Amino acid sequence: MVHEPQPRRPAISRLLEPLTVGVDIGGSKVLAGVLNGRGQVLERIRRETPTTSPEEVEDAIVDIVRELGSRHPVAAVGIGAAGFVDAARASVLFSPHLAWRNEPLRDALWVRLRLPIVVDNDANAAAWAETHFGAAVGRRHLLCITLGTGIGGALVLDGRLFRGANGMAGEFGHMQVVPGGHRCECGNRGCWEQYASGNALVRDARELIVARSPVAHYLRDLVDGDADRLTGPMVSEAARHGDPAAIELITEVGDWLGTGLAGLTAAFDPDCIVVGGGVSEAGDLLLEPARESFSRTLTGRGFRSPPPIMPAFLGPDAGFIGAAELARSAARRSRRSRRSRRRGMRARSGRPLRGSQRSTRVTSNE
Asked: Vertex 133, ends 304 and 174: CA angle to 5°?
């Protein structure tokens, strides 16, 4: 179930801030919405991702933004993209689900929309949303993990997104946890996401069906013996109905998840861990074994305050909500620039400046 964001009580200045659009681009769908300064979604749109073609995906983004802009005074646009985004937040260097290779997305969209554009990794956008309006409100040091086909991740350190030197921080799914283990799509072996992700869950469940294991009779009956038809949500649903094999499979994923989170906590010392993504919909069937594994393997256990491991609050909306909120700073800069230009025009025309226009200082509300 997707909940509406429950933001903290805003300052008056937040009520007066411009509206922004966030767009979350995935391999199969595009989610977008208009966000106000309080974190409320005024309108949302869902479309199928047209193809992997960069041009057609760009066309889809432009159409969505123009449609939303026809009904709302949009001041800036944030894009959350699955893949590597450069440190300037302008280009998608690589996307595993789309044919983006060094794609100058920000500039291409600006030419067509003439609005401030911010591009960021989708996991960064989701973490930013949870920090401002979701499960991690009030937290300064957040570790955010998204469990889907693979593992996405993001860090908020001292209230700021940590992107790394090249904008590529947060690729936790490709930490090697089993040398010589399962082959990963990235080209390496034994990556964490090969043991704690939707792909890992489905792979192991299908292997049981193919082997005609007697413990997998319920899963085998679900798909009439055709292992290729089995999906992650089917395994989660079977676990919720009490199937022992499905519960065991999800518990194993949870064990691996907790072990990996313990290692990341040793490295970054977060005060909160938020777990989202499709696999997290298994709820405590996944998170309880993760918490137990985390407690067993955390460095310094017994001598530190362990961070809580919590489910994400904003569900599938987190990506576009975070992207829209990241675009808010661009909207503020654009507004200040317009005001500065107006002051300059008034000064050149010899007309007196009014009130706050006499000062070049930017107030805290900006």
From this structure: 60
Assigned domain for 3 exists:
no
pLDDT (tens digit per residue) in 165-219: 988 899 999 999 999 999 998 889 999 999 999 999 999 999 999 999 999 999 9
Residues paired with 310 in a beta bridge: 274
105-111-113 Cα angle (round to 5):
90
Whole-prediction pTM value? 0.83
Residues 224 and 281 placed together within one structural domain of the fold: yes
**Strands 309-311, 19-25: pairing kind:** unpaired
Same-domain pairing of 18 and 73 = yes
19 and 91 housed in the same domain: yes
